């Protein structure tokens, strides 16, 4: 509809300008800054001028090394053994501290170790906590994305029935979405409490006291799982609604045709419902993944990254550095790493779920 | 035969409702626990967690926790700050994003496609990945206020408002909605001599009710529940919003009754608002999924 009545550069820029300017300053600029700052030693407040440090921040965060220890030997080359006959190994510290033979391991610490052959192998990392944060974040995403999407679809199918009062149930299932994740996290601290927590009381009642009481957020083996369960509880209603809007775009005539054909419930789902939900499924998967990678508030309120770094996450580390330690460059580097991860994964997801022609 | 069939149908219906109710209980019990606990003294609150009393208003019920919460922390101030920041951001966001979408859909201007594409591209940048450099930028930005020109936005209202006025999602929602309006209507108004301002105010905005509600609800939820950003940029109590005030409140003491009272105070009004406008809330979330 290009005509002299709709054409105006002045009006276009005048009306779109404010939004464009705000997005440029508060989204695009910080995004470019993040990349630029990750190559410097910028701090929030510092008396010294900012310096270019190249890839040092990335090396500091992502540096890892693999080291297989050789047993110590005497002058004749025989393996030294301790009182039990086991070979004696040099300490890790002797390798990672001031050892001119292994400059690449200087300053690293043990991340984990395993034994494949005769001698133990250590995986060393320059920043063990950040490595744990990456692993925890990936575990969170890998569990939450399919489970939350699947449960949300189940709820959407349940809510899509024609039953009296179904809107009330839909409203209730959606309720936690409206509540702040901070409030939810505090409430669930109470549910997960080791002594008087509701979950322990419920399990004790169901098992007549047979199950032991667990400090869900205080044990490294259960803390992340507890946060995963709560996060799904809080957000599943959101994606239920998106599935529901996808379900309602499927033409009723398709269902009628399936009914005439005498299809079973599973066949209807498999051949009518699911193909109709394809685009919705891609969208939901990408949205959940992006949200899950941003995991922060739950950690900050419930565990602070503990116990024993078992709930450290990438964003929690970015904030702890960038804000807590005022190390803007370190925090920015983590932000860039996070963006690269999220962006690559959404590209992979788009590729895997592309329309096959 | 007929009675058996109808019994069967009745049973199946009962099972369906039982499943629906069981799931509803899972979603609602922490919220009921929160509200009921807010009326109980600490000792009773802890004892009640062992039985169904946790979800019932029984025993020594009073509003003491609420009174004590107000004494313990400037709760009123926190709520005022949140309402102010949320309200101002929602209103400015609706104005600026709708104007931008109007320009993108109805006005022909050089750079239109490029700017719109750039804005929509920001949808793939999660806020968490720009928060840290944004903190640095916010600590240096100039502001012309009542005390003249100052630098640094930390500890202010504007640092909580201005970065969130314009965003890709809100503009996207308006653009999608405006595209479905009849373009001839706008052109006709122009031909008849209406100014662009008049077309925006008198022709388009009166038709934009549903998308305004959607954008307002989404912005409201994001702003009222803000946590990470104010945690970093607001250290002074004077500008602190409710969610950050809560964390502070929690560290200050472990008086559970008072904490539950504070949680109820900042949550129940939002829940009431939601239940009142339930359809609009759910429709607004659903619309984020359309054509995404």
What does this structure look like?
The complex is a heterodimer of chains A (357) and B (292). Chain A contains 14 helices and three strands. Chain A is mostly helical. In chain A, helix 1 packs across helix 14 and helix 4 runs antiparallel to helix 11. Chain B folds into two domains: 1-62; 72-288, MetI-like fold, CATH 1.10.3720.10. A two-stranded antiparallel ribbon of chain B has the order 1-2. In chain B, strand 1 (142-145) and strand 2 (148-151) form a beta hairpin. Chain B is flat and about 70 Å long. Chain B starts with a helix and ends with a helix. At the A-B interface, helix 1, helix 5, helix 6, helix 8 and helix 11 of A face helix 1, helix 4, helix 5, helix 6 and helix 9 of B.
Q: Report how far the terminal alpha carbons of chain A are from each other.
A: 34 Å
Mean pLDDT of chain B: 89
How much helical structure, as a percent, in the residues of chain B? 55-70%
How are the strands of the largest sheet of chain B arranged?
1-2
* Pair of chains with the largest interface and how many residues each contributes: A-B, 100 and 99 residues
Tally the helices of chain B. 15
- What's the end-to-end separation of chain B, in Å? 51 Å
Please report the total strand number of chain B as a whole number. 2
Instruction: List the helices and strands of chain A in order.
Output: HHEHEEHHHHHHHHHHH
CATH homolog superfamily of the largest domain in chain A: MetI-like
Please supply descriptive tags for the structure shown above:
heterodimer, A: 357 residues, mainly alpha, MetI-like fold, 2 domains, 3 strands, globular, B: 292 residues, two-stranded antiparallel sheet, MetI-like_sf (chain B)
């Amino acid at each position: 509809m290009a005509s002299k009545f709709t054409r105006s550069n002045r009006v276009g820029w005048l009306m779109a300008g404010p939004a464009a300017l705000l997005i440029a300053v508060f989204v695009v600029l910080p995004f470019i800054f993040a990349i630029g700052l990750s190559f410097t030693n910028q701090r929030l407040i510092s008396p010294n001028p900012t310096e270019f440090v190249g890839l040092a921040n990335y090396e500091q965060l992502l540096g890892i090394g693999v080291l297989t220890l050789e047993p110590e030997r005497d002058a004749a080359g025989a393996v030294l053994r301790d009182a039990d006959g086991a070979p004696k190994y040099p300490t890790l510290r002797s390798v990672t501290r001031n050892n001119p033979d292994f400059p690449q391991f200087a300053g690293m610490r043990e991340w984990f170790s395993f034994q494949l052959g005769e001698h133990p192998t250590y995986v060393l990392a320059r920043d063990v906590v950040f490595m744990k944060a990456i692993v925890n974040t990936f575990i969170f995403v890998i569990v939450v994305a399919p489970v939350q999407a699947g449960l949300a679809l189940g709820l959407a199918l349940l809510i899509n029935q024609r039953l009296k009062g179904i809107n009330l149930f839909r409203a209730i299932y959606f309720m936690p979405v409206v509540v702040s994740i901070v409030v939810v996290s505090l409430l669930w601290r109470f549910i997960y409490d080791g002594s008087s927590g509701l979950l322990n009381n419920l399990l004790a009642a169901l098992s007549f006291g047979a199950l032991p009481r667990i400090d869900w957020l205080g044990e490294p083996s259960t803390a992340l799982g507890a946060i995963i369960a709560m996060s799904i509880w809080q957000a599943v209603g959101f994606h239920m609604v998106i599935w529901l809007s996808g379900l309602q775009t499927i033409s009723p005539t398709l269902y009628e045709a399936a009914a005439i054909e005498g299809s079973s419930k599973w066949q209807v789902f498999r051949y009518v419902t699911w193909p109709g939900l394809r685009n919705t499924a891609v969208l939901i998967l990408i949205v959940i993944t992006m949200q899950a990678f941003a995991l922060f508030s739950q950690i900050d309120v419930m565990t602070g990254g503990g116990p024993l770094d078992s709930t450290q996450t990438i964003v929690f580390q970015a904030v702890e550095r960038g804000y807590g330690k005022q190390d803007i460059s370190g925090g920015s580097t983590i932000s860039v790493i996070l963006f690269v991860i999220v962006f690559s994964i959404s590209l992979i997801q788009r590729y895997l779920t592309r329309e096959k022609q | 035969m007929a009675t058996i069939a109808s019994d069967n149908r009745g049973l199946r219906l009962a099972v369906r409702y039982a499943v629906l109710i069981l799931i509803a209980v899972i979603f609602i019990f922490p919220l009921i626990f929160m509200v009921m606990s807010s009326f109980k003294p600490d000792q009773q609150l802890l004892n009640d967690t062992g039985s169904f009393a946790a979800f019932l208003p029984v025993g020594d019920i009073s509003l003491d926790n609420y009174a004590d919460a107000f004494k313990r922390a400037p709760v009123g101030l926190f709520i005022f700050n949140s309402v102010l920041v949320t309200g101002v951001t929602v209103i400015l966001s609706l104005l600026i994003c709708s104007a931008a979408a109007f320009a993108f859909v109805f006005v022909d201007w050089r750079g239109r496609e490029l700017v719109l594409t750039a804005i929509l591209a920001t949808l793939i940048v999660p806020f968490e990945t720009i928060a840290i450099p944004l903190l640095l930028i916010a600590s240096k930005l100039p502001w012309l206020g009542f005390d003249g020109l100052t630098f640094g936005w930390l500890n202010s209202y504007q640092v909580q408002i201005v970065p969130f006025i314009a965003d890709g999602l809100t503009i996207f929602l308006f653009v999608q909605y405006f595209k479905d309006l009849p373009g001839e209507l706008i052109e006709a108004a122009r031909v008849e001599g209406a100014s662009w301002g008049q077309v925006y105010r008198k022709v388009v905005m009166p038709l934009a009710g549903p998308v305004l509600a959607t954008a307002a609800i989404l912005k409201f939820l994001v702003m009222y529940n803000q946590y990470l950003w104010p945690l970093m940029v607001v250290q002074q109590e004077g500008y602190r919003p409710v969610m950050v005030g809560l964390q502070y409140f929690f560290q200050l003491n472990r008086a559970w009754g008072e904490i539950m009272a504070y949680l109820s105070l900042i949550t129940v009004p939002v829940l009431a608002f939601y239940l009142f406008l339930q359809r609009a809330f759910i429709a607004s979330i659903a619309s984020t999924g359309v054509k995404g």
